[in-house]
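Why does residue order matter? Because the sequence determines the fold. Keep that principle in mind as you read this record.
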Amino acid sequence: MSEQTPSDDALLDQIEALYEQIDPPPADLAEGVLARLEAETLDAELLTLVEFDKELAGVRSVSMLRAPDEVGTWSLEYLGPGFRVQVRISRGQRQARLDGWVTPAQPLTVHLTSTGRRSTAEEAQVADSGRFEFPATPTGACRLTFHPADGSRPLVTPPFWI
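Structure:
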């Protein structure tokens, strides 16, 4: 009796299936890598998401595409070189507002850019108190870009949903 040995390709497929089952990659892995690559081509430094409230998880997922009228308030916090940015998103019926705080306060120009089919950009200045706001924001995937007053390299957030 001769025993058949699986081919290398078959063994690799079995190993892949095993890892998909016991240790699948994070759902946002590809999105994070693409955001990092896009930031590299923008000649900007990518800020790191360090905190978000639990309700935000649904907003960043596919459920947001199914529920565009979702209302509520969510917060994000990003860490950059020498400062933190806290963002609060308030969303009502198809209207949204974004309020932000930079700590420590410093002179920055902030651009809120939608990344959808109809890309838009809004601009705000960080006040002496560190606060900035976008009273009427686009909805969908967006990102914030912070331009230091000294002309140094801008800092950009990964895309997030409004």
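The chain has one domain: 46-161.
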